[in-house]
Amino acid sequence: MGTIQNKYIGDRAFYKRVLAVAVPIMIQTGITNFVSLLDNIMVGRIGTEQMSGVAIVNQLIFVYYLCVFGGFAGAGIFTAQYYGAEDHEGVRHTFRYKLWMGAILFLAALAVFGLFGGQLIGLYLNGSADGGDLQATLGYALGYLHIILAGLPAFTVVQVYSNTLRECGETVVPMRAGLAAVAVNLVFNYLLIFGKLGFPRLGVNGAAIATVLARFVEMAIVVVWTHRHPRKCPYIRGLYRTLRVPARLICRFFRTGSPLLVNEALWSGGMAMLTQCYSLRGLNVVAGQNIANTVSNVFNVVFFAMGDAIAILVGQHLGAGRFKQAKDEDNKIIAFAVFIAVLTGILIFAAAPLFPRIYNTTDEAKHIAMLLMMAQAVFTPQIALMHTTYFTLRSGGKTIVTFLFDSAFMWVVNVPVAFALSRYTALPVIWIFSIVQMSDLIKCVIGVVLVKKNVWMNNIVQEKEV
Fold it and tell me: What residues contact 199, with CB distance under 8 A and at least 6 apart?
């Protein structure tokens, strides 16, 4: 018993160190998701079509967000390890690489959404019309999409700066920028959606404008702070003297990061495909899933932040060659994340019968939202375990393994199961969702086995491995 406790439970200093990294990320992401929740409620007060249109666009934009995260993640692994080795020039190279990658991804997204936005939204409107007007939903979604695209450049720049700050141990500034952004978002949501204090009543378009304004506020804060504090951010000195990145490093960053980019693109595309499968059960399902996912995102930030803690703390240990400490802290963070996920699941389950009542939508959509929230609550510990084992594998540069573990599994197992059940059976959506989630138990077993085998314990900046 004592051995298990020593392996999976840390002392006060350990939890203080983990929470010092994780809590600012939790607060920033949590408040962002909470404001998204309020945004969702405000739009949901207008009607089912408006709420469903926004939900569909956000699902599509989510693919871009995760492509950015994946595109930066490979360089981010090097950033954490360079910083642990006190190599500031190395950090500058990863920063410049992220700038170039961000520009490429933004231009690609602009082309895709600009040319094919209507067709992509239409994929979610091929099911039953139960719960609302499909054509009206398409119109609201297109209006929201065209405005929200203006905020993508600011989002991309924020990720370049904030990710680098976090990877170098500075998590408070991105949190403060996020707090300011969500305050702007919340205030202008209220003013522009409902037309308060003399502002025009813009409905869904007002929600999009508020989001764009918030993105630019967040960008201004992180960029200005970073450049005004070169002592805390020594890598910022001389950063823009050149945007050139040595070819050998581009190859290393891309070789490590391209599987992560492909992984995030395929995984988010897989999630969009799952949502499309569920949407065949009707517009009520689109609305219900939107409600359930929004509230679950607020609670789930806790163990998602634990994944970031693994990327930062364990990555820095690996970069400094402290393999024993990396293994020890990784075990304890995973155990801590699963424990918190159990508590989180209880909260989600308790909120399930009450929360959907806030929305101005059909009774059927509210009932579906309640059932989906209950199912999500049951599977929360499983999601925490998958997420932390994924970040463990990624911290040591095992990006091919994480690709197979994450998105390959999604497209080989999850998507075919959902596709078959949604099209060739009459099962209610709650059963389809639950069966898809149960299939992830296989992934949990694989993740635990790979972590225990220590395949992730690599020092990639010195190309040395245990």
Answer: 191, 192, 206
